[in-house]
Specification:
The chain is an alpha/beta fold. It folds into 2 domains: 109 residues; 130 residues, Carbamate kinase (3-Layer(aba) Sandwich). The chain contains 8 helices and 6 strands, in the order H-H-H-H-E-E-H-E-E-H-H-E-H-E. It is elongated, with a radius of gyration of 29 Å.
Length: 248
Amino acid sequence: MSHMHLHANSRADRRILAISLALLVGFMIAEVVLGIVASSLALLADAGHMLTDASALGLALFAAWAASLPARGRWTFGFARAEILAAQANGITLVVIGLLIVYSAIGRLISPPDVEAGIVSGLLDDGRIPVVSSVSRADDGGVYNVNADTAAAALAVALRAEKLVVLTDVEGLYADYPASSDVISQLDASELEAMLPSLADGMVPKMEACLRAVCGGVARAHVLDGRVPHSLLLEIFTDSGVGTMVLP
């Protein structure tokens, strides 16, 4: 009687595991489809977490089935070995999915999606001056702060602008900061790219924006001291100019 009762419990446990696995796989597939359609890393990451859970449930179901098999010869079919395999598979799957998500996220940072500049172009065609906030709604519905320099460079490329002007609170790009206060008046993209690793943290996004702009088709980019009265006019309308100019 006791033996029959154990077998009945084992079958009931396997049935519960199978139902749970089916439900989890259904939700996982739905999140994968929605994540691909919406290009949402958040949904895909959650689907990846569900995949590890599904793997654990699947291996637990296999362990429950294996444990019901009779021993033969040197082989036994207890839970212990299957549980170890389940833990290993679950861990490996989670690491692989995590690496894929990190790779995709880095790819989006290095090569951000194209900017849809139609609305801004329309405003410019109407003779208006658009003011663009660097707050953006993502595909997953969240609202995120976007680096203003990065956003300005991407918009300049999309608009095929002649100039990108970045205002800051220093005179321009220093040649050897902090050892020297000499400002570089002009440099090209290759020279700037070589300097980037040695720049102070505050200047990196601004100079990266200038580099991205001129490499994307903008004729020139300028870094000006916004504290100086009429600095923009001085750069545009004087021969000597102010600040630092970056050329392709």
